[in-house]
Structures are given as C-alpha cells and as structure tokens.
Amino acid sequence: MEGKAPIMRRSALAAIAAIGSASLFLSGCSKADDNTNDNGTKSAGANAATKGVVNASDKKGGTVTYEMSDVPDSFDPGNTYYAYMYNLSRLYARPLMTFKPGPGDEGNTLVPDLAASKGQPSDGGKTWTYKLRPGLKYEDGTPITAKDVKYAVERSNFARDVLSLGPNYFQQFMADGDKYKGPYKDKSDKGLSSIETPDDTTIVFHLKQAFQEFDYLVATPQTAPVPKAKDTGVDYVKHIVSSGSYKFQSYEDGKQAVLVRNENWDPKTDPLRKQLPDKIVVKLKVNPETIDQDVAAGNAIDLVGTGVQASTQAEVLTDPAKKANTDNTYGGRLVYLAINSKLKPFDKPECRKAVQYAIDKVSVQTAEGGPVRGEIASTVLPPDIPGYAKSDAYATKDNKGDIAKAKDQLKACGQTSISTNITARSDRPQEIDAATAIINSLKKVGINASLKQYPSGKYFTDYAGVPKFIEKQNIGLMMMQWGADWPSGYGFLQQILNGKAISQSGNTNLSLYDNKAVNDLLGKAIATQDTGERNSLYTEIDKKTMDDAVLVPLTYFKVLLGRPQNYTNLVSTAAFSGQYDYLNIGVASK
C-alpha cells in the first residue's frame, strides 16, 4: 500500500548534513533518553513504542486529535489504499480479520475481527469459509450480515469505474471474477456467484486458484461490511455507516472529520477495541510545522506517520529530552523511482539500466533526511519483508552512481541523450528534493528530466496512476513509495509488479511492468503451502525484476515519529508501516 512519505524542508538540508550520519541513528533507551518532559512527566525513552506499549491505560474520556498536511484518498474503507487509512478506518469499519495491537513485528499477528475465527480453507486453499461473530450491529442498531460483507467486496473490487482507489485482489482471484460487472451494473441481488452467503453469519469465497495467504487479504478494509441500501457509490464517503466502535458525527470534505462513540457497538462482540476517547477529530490540510508543534505539545498525532519535519528533525536529534519522545523504525516500505517500461526509449532495458547506474543514491538519501529516514536500497523487497536477500545488481562505488557505465548503457540503447519528465507529489517537499537530486544525477549522463508536480490526493487517480496520462505527457520516471499490503513477499510485490494489477486509473504498477515469468512466479508463490519455498520464490521475483531494471530502489524507508505524551497506548506497529496503532489510543490524565 502507498505510505505517505516523510516531508522534508529544503532549508534544513544543510543542518541535517551537519549532524552526521552516526548521530542520525536512534539506538534504544540511553541514559540521555531518561528525561523529564516539559509537562513534568517522565519520558519512556527513545524507541520505547517499538518495544512495548507506552502510557498503557484504560482511562476513558477526552479527545484524540489526528492531523495531516493534505487530504487522504478517501475515508471510504472500500476506496482507499493508504496505510494510515487502513489503520484509522478500523475505528469505524471492521474487516473480517485484522492485526493485533503490538510493538514491531508483534503487530503483524493476524487475529479475527468481524469473523469469529480465522478462515477455514478447503479444496487445497481454493475455498475459504468465515463465520461472523454473533450479535454484530451497525451504528443504527440493525444487524450486520454476511451479505453486507459480500457486497462490500463487490463494490470495492468490481466497480473500478466508480471506486478505483483500492487494490483489486478479489477481482483477480475470485472464480468468474473477470466476468462480473459489479453491483452498480448488476441489478439483481445475486451478485458475484463465487462469494456465497448460505446464512446471515457465513461467507464462503471460491477462488480460481489456491491462495495460501487469504487471511491477510480479508484483513483489508474492503471486507468491512456495507449495507447495500445505504451505499451511494463514490458519495458513500459522506455518510459511512459504522460497524466499529466509533461513528461519524460530521464530515467536511477536505477540512475535517469528527468521530464519536458508536452506542450500538458492543464490547462483547469485539475483544480488540476499548472505545476510550469520547471524540476523535481528524484535521486536514494542517501546516506541517504546526503538526510538529502540536505533536511536541502532546496534543496531536501525525496521522500519516510522516514523522517530524526536517526543520524539526535536527533540533530533536540533538536535544536529549526531545529525542526521548521519538520512535525510529523501519516502515516495511521502499522509496523508489518507477521507470515507465512502455514509453520509448525506456521500453528498452538498456535505457532503464542507464538510469540505474546514473543515480547518486547518497544525494537522494540526504534529500530524504539522511540515514534516520532510510538506508540506501538495492532490492525491491525491504529487509523486514520475508523473501528479502541482500543483492545489488547495479552496484556503484559508495552508492554515488557510475557515469561511465550509465553512458555505456545509453549507447547500447541507441541513444546519446533522452528528454523526459519525472513526477513527484507537490505536497511532499522531501519527495520533490529527492526527485531534484535524481534530475541532477541524470543530467550528467545525458538524460534530461523535467519535474512535474501533482497533489497526493490525486496522484494515482488523475496523474501518475493513469497510463494514458503519463504516455501523453511523456512521463518516463515517477517517484514512488510502497509498503506491503500485508507482511509477506506477495503482499509487497503483487500490486507493483503483476501485469494483471495494471489499471487505467488508480494504478500502482507505475512501471506498467507485465513480465509473464514474474506474473507466473507470483501465482505459483501464492499457491505454495510451504513458507520457506514461498519466500524463495519471492527472492527470485525480486532478482528478475531488478534484471529488467523497471524500478530503481532508492532507500529502505525509516520513520522518525514524534510521540505525543498526553496520549495513551502508543505502540509502533509493523503492520501499518511503523505508524502507531490507532485502535486504542486514549487521552492521559492531566
């Protein structure tokens, strides 16, 4: 899933460089981390939330505030593909399965949510059956049924002309999924025949092939129930019907959302949620520096998990008391440059390899905020995803690029120079700085790239994620950041490498990569029961992709989160790109 990149201020680059790479790494709780905060409370220490739950409490009351500098793709659980919205949406939309709140890798543990237990596979993994918990209700008191889960999957995966922002795994893998036209065109009540609901508490998924990680798939918010009678398509976001512990009190598009307790949520049906705060406020389009200030004051959470701004970062890392209120962790993400493999001359592998060799990755790392923001990457899979194997197909001295090798590849491609465009998100200064560093590297070998900036909220729907648009605009290079949809090689690779995942809007396979060998290996891997064998196949896919040079790994993303001291139950979880788990955050006593 697409994780929001940490934001970087250009004016702070020199300050960050001056700190030096050694001090940029946070290393557990040191003596210097044992500090008293401005409000008189004792800090748990740097990285405490990566090892356990900070400020554990069952205290009820108060308001938890989330802030972000832009707007999300959508609050609709069936029409979103950002990690932070997967995280937040669980407060009002319960999927069949979800991840257990816990530090680091513990957060990757799958547990039943709407379902009473994990899925029961049969037919070698081609059929999966789930039973819903008894007594489930929507915010209006009406019962939640298996038909509502079936409908949620149908609207989110089979109506791509209406809801295009989420992944389409179900469309790809359900039997007869290629024939069903979706619930807005299907006027009958039957729906997709390969999803059966023999009774109100049973849902059965029939797949076209074995899918050994299906429990992960149903942990996406696309399985959160939606009552068909209340669905208004793309406008459903304005009146979402809650199945979780909170419901929408108000929603102002582009401004703010306010959630309050759902009085028809029953804790007897939900062993995970605690429903602690009275109110949850999500503020949109907040100045990034203001977010930093509010987080430091203990009164807000950076919703998208970008971490502290670069202008704040230098100050935080050199002040022991402020550093003690931070968590630095891997986010299960890769920052990379996607190369449009369908656009001439990048349809030739030699031209793509020229880009690989040309880029000074150290300059890109510096632009992103230094080693604290990510380690230099050379593979598709990050080190914290199963299937990763250390490798560097386009190694250069000190990772600073090789002009001679780049020019050799350009010559082999039949080019002496290339003119193209590179995209970055306009509301992400850090991404813009990284793109600028890449432009400077490419210019040295004769590849002239002009920067095109587009807003995050429409980056995939209107711009980089629209194949016709990037072809028309001569866009050969696109800045991208990607996190695993679930913690496995398949959960990371499928939506950015499989040719079947390419869509005409909302596309995340930005390279438009369609290699039959890779497609077949992905299919083989997900049907393989043995975990070790499956992981070996993911390693092979990584190698083949790098051989084809369709994307340039830049950094293995790390995040530096500011930890608000006035909030409780803060724990950084690998399941949501290192963000704090939003399920049970509360407000501490004053």
Automatic annotation (TrEMBL):
Domain of life the protein comes from: Bacteria
Record keyword rRNA processing present: no
InterPro entries listed in its UniProt record: Peptide/Ni-bd, SBP_5, SBP_5_dom
Stated name of the protein: ABC transporter substrate-binding protein
Signal peptide range: 1-32
One Pfam family of this chain: SBP_bac_5
UniProt keyword annotation of Acetylation present: no
Coiled-coil regions listed: none
Domain Solute-binding protein family as annotated: residue spans: 109-501
Alphabetized UniProt keyword annotations: Signal
